[in-house]
Specification:
The protein is an alpha/beta fold and about 400 residues long. The chain has 14 helices and eleven strands. It has two domains: about 220 residues, Type I PLP-dependent aspartate aminotransferase-like (Major domain) (Aspartate Aminotransferase, domain 2, 3-Layer(aba) Sandwich), CATH 3.40.640.10; about 90 residues, Alpha-Beta Complex (Aspartate Aminotransferase, domain 1). Strands 2-8-7-6-5-3-4 form a seven-stranded mixed β-sheet, with helices on both faces. Strands 1-10 form a two-stranded parallel ribbon. A two-stranded antiparallel ribbon has the order 9-11. The relative contact order is 0.16.
Length: about 400
């Protein structure tokens, strides 16, 4: 099953970022050292040339998949190359190492951490579990990430969504009012996808504690490292305090590993064990685990990435605002969400004609809105020019 953010109306040409990821595995580790003490007449082999950098495909700017245009940590790349030969083996041992690393970082026990090949399997498995064979009920917001809601609907359970606030944010009060004895889970994506904004951390904490008294509260923090104040908004403490809260994370966003598929969750031990059994399905991506451990050990990487994403989303916000568009205020992820004055499919076709691919679907109630993510410099420039042309008043 394809990741929702890569689904488009037409077949997608290969992107520069995917070509880059393929090329990373082919990089040379350098020339062989000269043998010491060789005679003057002895022939010396020429150094092995480094592999050429893969060509950048600029046929289409990819502005809809929420990938990182900046790539993964150099330490992650080096670790994947070094350990590439070990991918013949299952990564059970390495997975336990990563869980211990995450547990130490988050202040929980390894038994409270579970891994998956990206966060999508985590969301889908959670949806299946709380659906209770069609008898369950999920309370969440409209215009939010589809992973859990879609899974709940597929398993025949009831889905209750509440409207966004006047400034296009998740309305926690409205969600709280919908929780009943029938509710088997609540879901909050923070920062929210597609709107990009956040809920007040004090209100989220109060909501999660109360909601968790009825059923598990899933807080999806896929984009949390991109926000302006991570420490004020992170909710892992709720798990440490013993509340029935699940935290979801991914290495696909700020860590630049969308193609490696590695995600993790944090929950109370029994639920974490249940989620682990549902998501592992025989094992987790070896190279992804290796890259994740290296990424978490690279203390300089996240602080280096944060201002890049912030500058990109602020530029996109300014462009949309300058075109007089309604827009979700204060975006804190890697994208902006704004009104385009035409059906999403029509807008996507017009942008594709200008060499820019935007998200190829709409959210119910927001069919005339789009979500555009931060891209590489050339992608940002092309996107800005296309927006000014397509949305010209």
């Amino acid at each position: 099953m394809r990741h929702p953010d890569t689904i488009t109306e037409a077949p997608a040409p290969e992107t520069s970022r995917r070509a880059l990821l393929r090329g990373l595995g082919l990089a040379s580790v350098g020339a062989a050292a000269l043998a010491a003490g060789c005679s003057k007449g002895e022939a010396v082999a020429a150094p092995t040339p480094a592999a050429a950098a893969p060509a950048v495909d600029k046929s289409m700017a990819i502005m809809g998949a929420n990938e990182s245009p900046f790539g993964p940590s150099k330490k992650a790349i080096a670790a994947m190359i070094e350990k590439a030969s070990l991918t013949a083996r299952y990564a059970d041992g390495e997975g336990e190492e990563l869980k211990a690393q995450i547990a130490a970082m988050e202040g929980v026990t390894p038994e409270q951490v579970f891994l998956a090949n990206g966060s999508t399997p985590i969301l889908a498995a959670f949806g299946e579990i709380i659906s209770m064979k069609g008898k369950g009920q999920l309370v969440t917001s409209e215009a939010t990430y589809e992973g859990v809601p879609r899974s709940v609907k597929e398993y025949g359970a009831e889905l209750i969504t509440t409207p966004l606030t006047a400034d296009y944010a998740i309305d926690l009060d409205a969600m709280a009012a919908k929780i009943s004895k029938k509710t088997t889970a609540t879901y909050v994506c923070n920062p929210n996808n597609p709107t990009g904004n956040m809920v007040d951390p004090v209100k989220l904490r109060v909501f999660a504690i109360e909601a968790a008294k009825t059923a598990p509260c899933f807080i999806d923090e896929a984009y949390l490292h991109l926000c302006d104040d991570y420490n004020a908004n992170v909710m892992t403490s709720l798990v440490r305090e013993g509340h029935n809260v699940v935290i979801g994370r991914t290495f696909s966003k700020i860590y630049g590993m969308a193609g490696q598929r590695l995600g993790y969750g944090i929950a109370q031990p029994e639920l974490a064990k249940q989620m682990a059994m549902a998501t592992r399905m025989g094992g987790v991506n070896h190279a992804g685990i290796i890259a994740a451990m290296a990424s978490l050990s690279d203390a300089e990487f996240v602080p280096m990435m944060q201002p890049k994403f912030k500058a990109g989303r602020e530029k996109l916000f300014a462009v949309a605002k300058g075109l007089g568009r309604k827009i979700a205020a204060n975006p804190q992820a890697s994208f902006v969400f704004f009104e385009v004055g035409m059906p999403n499919t029509v807008f996507a076709e017009k942008m594709a004609a200008e060499g820019v691919r935007v998200v190829g679907r709409a959210w119910p109630g927001y069919e005339n809105w789009t979500r555009i993510c931060v891209g590489d410099d050339w992608e940002m420039e092309r996107c800005e020019a296309a927006l000014k042309k397509v949305l010209a008043v």
